[in-house]
From TrEMBL:
SUPFAM superfamilies: MFS general substrate transporter (SSF103473)
Chain ranges of the Major facilitator superfamily (MFS) profile domain: 40-453
InterPro entries assigned: FLVCR1-2_SLC49-like, MFS, MFS_dom, MFS_trans_sf
Region (Disordered): 463-482
Biased composition, class Polar residues, residue ranges: 463-476
A molecular function (GO) term: transmembrane transporter activity
PROSITE patterns noted in UniProt: MFS
Protein name per Swiss-Prot or TrEMBL: Solute carrier family 49 member 3
Matches recorded under Gene3D superfamilies: MFS general substrate transporter like domains
Subcellular location as annotated: Membrane
Domain of life of the organism encoding this protein: Eukaryota
Organism: Dicentrarchus labrax (European seabass)
Transmembrane segment boundaries: 41-61, 81-101, 110-130, 136-156, 203-225, 256-278, 290-314, 326-344, 350-373, 385-408, 428-448
Highest classification ranks of the organism: Eukaryota, Metazoa, Chordata, Craniata, Vertebrata
Length: 482
């Protein structure tokens, strides 16, 4: 199975009394020869670079929305569509992508994603150099669209890569590293865009800065990734998956998964809107682009720190549900606090602290929630599981972005504003964001309950019996590193 990845073999299991003692099944362990390969770290590195680069293309213009609008000769709403197009394009394309990743394989998906990402970045830069001003925005939008086509090919692969290449005690950590490379790209956006594009005329230089790394990443993916899956799986569950259509049917009948999809999708939408609109929200109260960029950067830095801590914790304890419910509660409280403090002038310290706390608890949920989604829906393919959540998140992101912008009101007099000519009140959208976050968090805490199906399957394959959620055993089938 060196070059494949579409077909996944059924691992033999032995049925026995659930109450039987958890002793390793010697005969079965002879059939289960698990191995891990050092090349998994290279594939993870390529995925991280690709995810980071795609995120940088996604929100290139958000931290410098006012300057981008002047350079492109368009309104702020049209600048927001350069980010929003990622969500609009990804929704229909995601259905094809989930099938592609789970059926055709990881290698093809990553290589195709890297080429689309590179072409999108190069087209954007080329469009910015056109002498005909009326053609600049459409060509830049075309480049954004190509990047949007690459996004689901990249977004759906962290859980797939973790399942195919990493043993069970490293899956959550690998997923966390791959998933958090996306907010790392958003962090670089918030730092690089205001630093490079200090004037509207420097937007082409900014696009060149973002285009150059995509060529290197595309080369690494095309030449370096030689197979979709390892010759020998790293765990008992790595080579077990339902066909694509059957998997979709199972997901639509899985109550726990549907609750997770709706609530976590809203979480993705809130974080997306927060990242996209942060500069426009803060400028009304006199905060400049540099301060907004700092808040966005701290939001992501603390999110990555929180995700790292939470990923290591759940890899060790397997307490997915408890960790997510606690983090969602604190993230909701931070969202409520931001919706109040961001509307008050001269509150820099409070805004910085709240953005940091919001990121720490909000972003850290993402990789663990994807792992929990796989646990509650096993043996459905990992890309299909992540894909439907991503689609739901994108649909809700589009709706929220449109509704939030529609609910803004133009302010006639705002002497401290740094927004330029377009000064909008974000009071109503902020209250709505806090209310929706509270509602969906309560629904998740009350209604989400599940078994850890993948862990149970691995325990049964190794011991011939199921173990309860979150329990661990002292001996398992060995994983040999090569």
């Amino acid at each position: 199975m060196e070059e494949g990845g579409g077909a996944r073999h059924q691992v033999p299991t032995v049925c026995s009394n659930v109450d039987a003692p958890a002793t390793p099944n010697t005969e079965l362990k002879k059939l289960l020869d698990f191995k891990v390969y050092k090349r998994r770290w290279f594939i993870l590195l390529v995925l991280c670079l690709l995810n980071c680069s795609n995120a940088m293309i996604w929100l290139t213009f958000a931290p410098v929305a006012d300057k981008s609008a002047k350079f492109l000769k368009v309104s702020l709403s049209e600048v927001n569509w350069l980010s929003l197009v990622f969500m609009v394009v990804a929704i229909p394309f995601s259905f094809v992508t989930t099938w592609m990743v789970d059926t055709i394989g990881l290698r093809t998906s990553l290589i195709l994603g890297s080429w689309l990402n590179m072409f999108g970045a190069l087209v954007r830069f080329g469009g910015s150099m056109l002498s005909q001003e009326s053609a600049v925005y459409p060509v830049v939008m075309l480049g954004q669209t190509l990047g949007a086509l690459a996004q689901p090919l990249i977004f759906f692969t962290p859980t797939k890569l973790a399942a195919l290449w990493f043993p069970d005690h490293q899956r959550a950590t690998a997923n966390m590293i791959a998933s958090m490379s996306n907010p790392l790209g958003l962090l670089l956006d918030n730092l690089i865009s205001p630093l490079v594009a200090k004037t509207p005329a420097q937007i082409p230089v900014l696009l060149l800065v973002y285009a150059a790394p995509t060529c290197i990443i595309c080369f690494l993916a095309t030449v370096g990734i030689r197979s979709s899956s390892p010759p020998t799986p790293p765990s008992a569950s790595a080579e077990t998956s339902e066909p694509f259509l059957q998997g979709l049917k199972l997901l639509l009948k899985n109550k726990a998964y549907l609750v997770l999809m709706m609530c976590f999708g809203l979480g993705i939408a809130v974080l997306t809107c927060f990242s996209s609109l942060l500069q426009q929200i803060l400028c009304v109260q006199g905060y400049d682009n540099s301060f907004a960029g700092l808040c966005g950067a701290l939001f992501i830095v603390f999110g990555i720190i929180g995700a790292a801590a939470l990923g290591l914790y759940v890899d060790k304890t397997k307490k997915f549900m408890e960790a997510i419910k606690i983090n969602m509660t604190f993230a909701t409280l931070a969202c409520i606090a931001f919706s109040l403090v961001a509307l008050i002038r001269d509150q820099k310290v409070a805004v910085v602290i709240i953005c940091s706390v919001f990121g720490f608890f909000g972003f850290s949920i993402y990789p663990v929630a994807l792992e929990l989604a796989v646990e509650c829906s096993y043996p459905v393919g990992e890309a299909t599981v992540a894909g439907l959540i991503f689609i739901m998140g994108q649909v809700q992101s589009v709706l929220l972005m449109i509704v939030f912008q529609a609910l803004t009101k133009r302010i006639a007099d705002s002497p401290l504003s740094t927004c330029g000519s377009a000064v909008l009140s974000w009071k109503v959208p902020m209250m709505l964001m806090a209310g929706l976050t509270t509602l969906f968090t309560c629904c998740f805490i009350i209604f989400f309950h599940t078994r850890y199906r993948r862990l149970e399957a691995e325990q049964q394959a190794t011991y011939g019996t199921k173990q309860s959620n979150g329990t661990t055993t002292t001996e398992k089938a060995p994983s040999v590193e090569e």
